């Protein structure tokens, strides 16, 4: 199994991430945004939200999931301030799926949120049909507290409001 870590953006990350995640329609299907059409869209998002002060400035921060030995980007973790909690989002590059990377990355993010950000709870709202995300959250100790209907739109799936599962984890 690969060793992974989380870090902020480094120039060049956008190339891999655009090709294998942010610009890939299948990889982005459960996201509440359109697929990135250019590498520059991915670069601009990372320049704004993947910095040491982005969480403080925007109450949102994007972390690169990297292979520890090579620094190669494997996906993204996004943290969003949500009342007294942190909302967690994660996505893995299409070439890195089904290798346990998402579970490792979520585990790293959980440690960071509880130990560094000193938050007491983490929330995650995966689409009801996103079985992979549900499995990762269960493996990482999150509990499902039910569904929320008409929570968000996933433009790659339909224009309809989608149902999510409400997962949580507390210290």
Automatic annotation (TrEMBL):
Molecular-function GO term, any one: acyltransferase activity, transferring groups other than amino-acyl groups
Originating species: Marinomonas spartinae
Record protein name field: N-acetyltransferase domain-containing protein
InterPro entries, per the entry: Acyl_CoA_acyltransferase, GNAT_dom, N-acetyltransferase
All copies of domain N-acetyltransferase, residue ranges: 16-168
Pfam family, one: Acetyltransf_3
């Amino acid at each position: 199994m690969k060793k992974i870590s989380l870090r902020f953006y480094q120039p060049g990350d956008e190339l891999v991430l655009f090709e294998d995640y942010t610009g890939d329609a299948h990889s982005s299907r459960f996201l509440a945004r359109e697929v990135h059409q250019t590498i520059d869209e991915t670069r601009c998002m990372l320049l704004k939200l993947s910095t040491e002060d982005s969480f403080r400035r925007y109450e949102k921060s994007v972390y690169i999931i990297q292979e520890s030995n090579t620094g190669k980007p494997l996906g993204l973790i996004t943290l969003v301030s949500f009342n007294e909690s942190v909302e967690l989002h994660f996505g893995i590059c299409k070439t890195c799926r089904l290798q346990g990377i998402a579970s490792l990355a979520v585990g790293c993010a959980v440690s960071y949120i509880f130990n560094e950000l000193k938050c007491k709870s983490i929330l995650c709202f995966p689409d009801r049909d996103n079985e992979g995300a549900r499995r990762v959250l269960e493996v990482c100790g999150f509990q499902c507290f039910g569904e929320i209907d008409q929570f968000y739109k996933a433009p790659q799936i339909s224009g309809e409001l989608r149902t999510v599962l409400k997962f949580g984890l507390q210290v």
